[in-house]
Amino acid sequence: MKKIRMALALMVAGSLLAGCAVYKPTIPSGYTGPRASIKDSFKTYGTSKADMFYVAQVNGSDVENTRIKTQKANAGRGMLMRPVPVMHEVPAARSVTLNIVGRTQHAAPVLELTNAVYEVKGTIEFIPEAGKTYAIRGELGDGGSSVWIEQDATHAIVGKKIEANGSGKVSMLAQ
Known about the structure:
Helices cover 18% and strands 37% of the residues. It is α+β, with helices and mostly antiparallel strands and 175 residues long. The chain has one domain (26-174).
């Protein structure tokens, strides 16, 4: 009986710790050079759905983003969701590699069983200019899904658009 309790306690502790992610800062320690900002974005559709466009990784390291912060901030709110904007600072005037994602997010997991979820993701490398702000933008839908980076002030696309083959609709099992 003691072994069962111990095993159960270890499983519970492991489950709790597995949910705690550690994110590396996007600015290296000791860096004092020029910076640029990259902001996640979203399009809301009522109070329970949004299309989110965000940075998932900077130079190969996971970063906290709009999707993660929105899920944390809205846990326990049922069918209501308020997206949380996120801004990432990165070193400017040197190459940065970003993994960017466009994905439909519903307020509750049960909504993903009965409603469409679209996703498109890819990697873009570019050299941000000092003092500039960039935004992750995109489009998700049956007609096609894409995600890109643009200069926030001018809306000029930086690099290439990442496009899904087809609509980018995610199967229920992959969610």
